[in-house]
Amino acid sequence: MTRVGRELGRLLPVAIVLLFLAWWIPAYFSSYWLRAFTAAVVYSLAALGVGLLYGRLGLVSLANFALLGVGAWVSLRLALHDPHLPVAANIVVGGVVAAALGTLIGLPALRLRGLYLALVTLMSAGAFFVVINAIGFPEGGSGFTGRGGSGAIRNAPRPSFAENDSAYFRFALAVAILGFALVLVHLRTRPGRAWAMIRRSEAAAYSAGVNVTMYKTWAFTLAGFLAGVAGGLYAANIGRPGTGDFGAASSMLLFGISVSAGSFHLLGAALAGLLARGLPALFSQRGINAEIANMIFGFLLMFSLTAAPEGAAGQLTGLARSMRARLSPRKRRAVSDGEPAGVDDAANGASAAAEVGS
Amino acid sequence: MIAAITGTNLLTFLITGLTVGGIYALSALGLVVVYRATGVLNFAQGAVGAIAALTLANEFIGKGRPEALGYIAAVALAIVLSLFYGLVISPRLSRRDPIVRAMGALGFGLFILGFCGWRWTARIQKLDLPTDEWSFKIGEVTVTLTRALVIVLALVVTVAITAFLNKTRVGLSMRSLANDRELSSMLGVDVRRAETVAWLMGGVIAGLSGILFGATKQLDASSLTFLVIPAIAAAVVGQLKSLWWTFAGAMLIGVIEAELTNFNRISPYKDITQLAVGAGVILLLQRSRVVSFVGADR
Amino acid sequence: MKHRAMRKRAVFGAIVALSLVAGACGGDDDDGASDTEAPDATEAPDATEAPDATAAPAGDSPCLVSGEAATGEPIKVGSIQSKTGPDDFSSSGQGAKAFFECVNANGGINGRPVEFLLEDDQWTPEVASQLGAKLVNDEGVVAMVGSSSFVECGVNEPLYEQEGVVAVYGTGVPRECYHSKNISPTNAGPRNSALGIAQYMVSEYGAETMTCISQNIPNVGEWVCTGLVEWGETAGVTVRAVLHDPANPDFISIIQDSVSDNPDAVIVMEPAGLTVPLLAVAEEQDLGDATHWGGPTSQYLAGFPETIGEYWWGRYDVQAELTTIDNTSPDNQAWLATMDEYGEADDPRDTFSQAGWLAAKIFTDTLLAMDPEAITREAVTEAIQNVKAYPSDLNCGDWYFGPGDRHNSNHAGRIVTINDAGEYELVEDCHEHADPELEDILALEESEGLGG
C-alpha cells in the first residue's frame, strides 16, 4: 500500500503538468502549433514503443513507423466501411492489428539480436512501403482496399466529441497518456521485472524461471500496439494520409530519434515527438529553408548520439538531479554514484537494477 | 494485360537484371568493406556518392570546368567525407551498439542530403559519361560501356579487395577485426590504421558508384541516398562479410527483380524481392542458431 | 573529466530546452513565407522565349492594374507548394507571387496590396495540414491562390469547406484536387494531360496499342494510367499500364517492359526529373524509332529538350495543359513580362508557372470588381464561386468555379513536338479530352452554362 502511495506521489506532479498542458496548449497556441503539437503527441506514442524495446530490452525495431501506417490504414478502413463505428474503437482495432504484425516482425528476435534483427525489421518496413504504395490508403470505395474508382474521396473522421483541433489535441493527449500509463504499469509489474532481468542476462532470467520467449515477444506486441494506436490518431489528425511518408527511412528515423531523445526514460519518448515534429514546425515557422532544416536535423541526430549516450531525456533528468543536489549538499554523493557511465549497457544495467530493486 | 513470357523476354530481363545487379553490388561491397573493418553499417554511403555525382555534374560539367578534374574532385570529396565521418565522428560512437553507430551514419547522410538539396536546385539534370558512347548488343538489350563498367568494377573491387585482405598486413588486421574486434585490439592489431584504410576504400567506392549511378539512374540526391537499402539486402547475403557472396547476392536480386517484370500483376510489387531475399537469408542462416545467452551482438 | 561531461550535458540539455522555449514563443509570431530562394546552379531558363520587351510599354504594367505602389491595408492570400521532396513543384507559386508583386507595385487591388503567404508542404500530409491551419485559421487568408501540391488537396479540403475558403488552385496533381468542392485548378491535371497526348497518338500516328508508364501511386500514376485504359475501351485502343515502384532504379526493365509487346505508342507519365533518365535508357536501347513517344505537360519545360538530348529531337511529343510558353497572345506575353520584371531569373517558365500566374490573375480580377472595404473571406468566396466563365488565352476553354461538387474546368489542351532544332513547336491547337470520368463535369457545364 505504501509503495502504491509513493508511486502516486511521484506521479502527481506529472499529472498536474499534463492537465496544465491539456488546458494551456489549445488556449494559448495558434492553430498551426496546435496541429504541430498534436503530431508530436502522436509521434511520441510510436517512439514510446521503440524506446521501450531498445531501452528496456536492447532490442531494435526499424519497422515501427510502418506499423504506424498499418494502424492508420486499418482504422481508416473501418471508419469508411461503417461511419457508425466509434472512432476510438477503430483506433484500438488498428492498434491490435499492428500489434499482431509487430509480434510477427519480432519473432526473429527470439534468435536474433543487434544488427541482424535490426535489418530484418528494416526489410519488413521496406516491404510495407512497397505494399502501401501499391494499394494506397482507403478512400471510401468498396472492396478490400477501400479505394474508390471515381467516387468522392472520404477522409478519416475524428471522434464526434473531438472534431475541432483543440478537442482533438486533448483527445490525442489523453490517448497518449493512457499509452504511457500502460507502459508504466508494465514496467512496475511482473513484465517490467522480467524485461530487466532479460536485459541483464538472458541466462539468469531463464534460470530464474522467466519465460524469456514470451516476455520478449510481448514487448514487440506492446510496441506494435502503441505504433498502431498512434497510426489511428495520425490518420484522424490529418484526414488523408499519404503513402510517401512510410518509406523505410521514416522507420529508421523513428528509431534514431527515439534513441537520441533517450530511450531509457519515458520522458525520452515525449521529447522524441517534439524533436521529430515540433522542431521542423519551428523551422518552417521561422522561414528556414526546408533543406537547411534537414541539414540541422541530420546534424542534431549525429550530435545528440555522440554527445549524449542516454539521450536528451537523460541529459535533462541528469541536469535536474544535479541542480537538486546543488540545492541540498547532503545528497551530493548520491548524485555522483548515480551518474551513468556513458555506455548503453552500463546505463541500462543501472536502470535495470533500479527496476529490479523497485 | 500480361506481357508475353517468351524466351526473348527472359533473356532481355536477365541482361537488364545483371546491369542493375551491378549497381546493387558496387554499393553493397562498399558497405561490407567498411563494416568488416569498423563495425559501422555505413548508412551515409549513398549520400556521399550523391554529393560526389552532383558536384561533378553541377560544379564541373555544368559550369564548363575541365571534366577530368571533376572526376578527381568528386572522388576526392567522397574520400574526404568518408574519412571525416570515419575518423572524427564515428569513434565517438565506438562503444555503442552497432545499430546506434549506423544511426550516427544516417544522421551524417541526412546532413549531406540536405546540403545537396539546398545547394543544387535544378529540377532536371543529367550526367553523361564518355563511356555512354560505346555499346554492344545482347539479344534485344543494348548494353552501354557505362553499365558494363559497373559490373566490371564490382568484379574488380571484389577481386582486388579479396587479394588485399589476403596478401597485405593491413588486410590481415582488417580480417582479424572482422572476426573479433576486442580480441584483435588486445592482440595489438593497429585498429586505427585498418579503419582508416577501410573508410578510405569506402570513400572511393562511394564516389565512383555515386558517379556511375548518377549516370545510369536518376541524378537525384535522395534516390541515390536510399539506394543503400537494396545494397544492405545484398550485403546481408554475404553476411556483411563475404565479398563474393555479396556480389552474387546483388546479382541475384537484380535478376529476380527484372524477371518479375514479366508478370504484370506482380510487377508493381517486385521491389519486395530485395527485402525478401535479405530477410530470408538472415532467417535461414540463423535457423540453426540456438539462443546462446552470451552470443555476440551481431 | 567528470566536470567536462557535466558541462557537455548542460549544454545539450540547454539546447533542447531552448528549442522548446523557442517553439513556445513561436505561437503568435511568424514571418510568413518559408520560401527562401536557394541559389540555382545549372540552368538559367533559356533564351528561346525571351519576352518581347516592347510588348509592355513603359508605365503600363502586365498585371491588370497600374499606378503607384499600394499602401492600403493588406489582403492576406495563402498558397501551398510541394517544393522540398522528390521533385520541386513550386513553379506555380512563383508565377502567382510574381503576379501579386506586380499588382502591389501598381496600385494593388483598389489600393490594397496583397500579402502573399507562400508555404512549402515538403510533400508531407502532416506539414500540409499544419500549414492549412496556419493560413486559414491563424492568418485568416481570404482565399488560397496558385497552390501546387501532391498532398495538400486531400488533406485540407475539409478545412476549406468548414471554414468557407476557396482555392483557385495553380497546379493540381492527384485526383483529390479534381474531386473537391472548394478547389478549382487552372490546369487540367495529369489524367487529362495523358488523354491529350494519347488522343494525339491516335489521330496523328493511327496508334491502336499503347503503353502508359507511371509510378505505382494511388490517385496519381495509377489514376492516370487507369484513365487511359478506360478511355481506350471506349475508343478501341488497347492500353497497357506499366506501373513501377517509385524507388525502383531498374529503368531498363521498365523501358524494355513498355515496348515488349511492340505498342504503337508509349506515354511516359512522369515528372520531368524522372523522365530524363527513362528517356536516357530508351535512347541507350535505341528505341526512339521503335514506337512513338510522348508525355504530359510536366515535360513542357524550358531546358527539357536540351537535357534529354539531340537524340529525341524530332521524336518526342508533349501535351501542354495551357498555351505554348512562347505564344504571342496578350495574356501569355503579360505572363512572360511579369515573370521577367517581378519573378526571379531562375523561376521556371513552364505550364505550371502559367497556371499559378493565371490563378492570381483570376483572383485579382474578381476582387477588383468588389468594394475594397468589403473584402472578407465570405465575400471573396461568394464572388469566386460566382465566376462561371473566365476567359484567357492561356487556356482553351474558360476557367470557372461554379456550384459543382468538383471542378475540372480545363479539359482541353494543345500538343507540341520537340522539333529537329530542339525547340517545342505547336502541332495541334486546342483539342478536347475524351475522359469518361468527365461526364458529370460536362453535364454540369451544360446545365449551368459554365465555361462560356
Sequence-ordered SSE layout with sheet pairings:
The complex is a heterotrimer of chains A (358), B (298) and C (452).
Chain A: H1 2-28, H2 31-57, H3 64-81, H4 87-106, H5 114-135, H6 165-188, H7 190-200, H8 202-207, H9 212-238, H10 248-261, H11 266-285, H12 290-307, H13 311-327, H14 332-338, H15 344-357
Chain B: H1 7-38, H2 45-61, H3 67-89, H4 98-119, E1 135-138, E2 141-144, H5 145-167, H6 169-179, H7 181-186, H8 191-216, H9 221-225, H10 228-237, H11 243-260, H12 272-286
Antiparallel strand pairs in B: 1-2
Helix pairs in contact in B: 1-5, 1-6, 1-8, 1-10, 1-11, 2-3, 2-4, 2-8, 3-8, 5-6, 5-8, 6-8, 10-11, 10-12
Chain C: H1 2-25, E1 75-81, H2 91-105, E2 114-120, H3 125-138, E3 143-145, E4 148-149, H4 152-163, E5 167-169, E6 171-172, E7 183-185, H5 190-205, E8 209-215, H6 221-235, E9 238-244, H7 251-259, E10 265-268, H8 272-284, E11 292-295, H9 304-308, E12 316-320, H10 330-342, H11 351-368, H12 377-385, E13 412-418, E14 424-432, H13 439-448
Parallel strand pairs in C: 1-2, 1-3, 3-5, 4-6, 5-7, 8-9, 8-10, 10-11, 11-12
Antiparallel strand pairs in C: 12-13, 13-14
Helix pairs in contact in C: 2-10, 2-11, 3-4, 5-6, 7-8
Give a brief description:
With 358 residues, chain A is mainly alpha-helical.
Give an account of the 3D structure.
- The complex is a heterotrimer of chains A (358), B (298) and C (452).
- With 358 residues, chain A is mainly alpha-helical.
- Chain A has 15 helices and no strands.
- The radius of gyration of chain A is 21 Å and the shape is globular.
- Chain A starts with a helix and ends with a helix.
- Chain B has 298 residues and is mainly alpha-helical.
- Helices cover 70% and strands 3% of the residues of chain B.
- Chain B is built from twelve helices and two strands, in the order ααααββαααααααα.
- Chain B has a two-stranded antiparallel ribbon with strand order 1-2.
- In chain B, helix 1 crosses helix 10.
- The relative contact order of chain B is 0.20.
- Chain C is of the alpha/beta class.
- Chain C is 38% helix and 15% strand.
- Chain C is built from 13 helices and 14 strands.
- In chain C, helix 8 links the parallel strand 10 and strand 11.
- In chain C, helix 2 crosses helix 10 and helix 7 packs across helix 8.
- The N terminus of chain C is likely disordered.
- Chains B and C meet through helix 1, helix 2, helix 4, strand 2 and helix 11 of B and strand 9, helix 7, helix 8 and helix 9 of C.
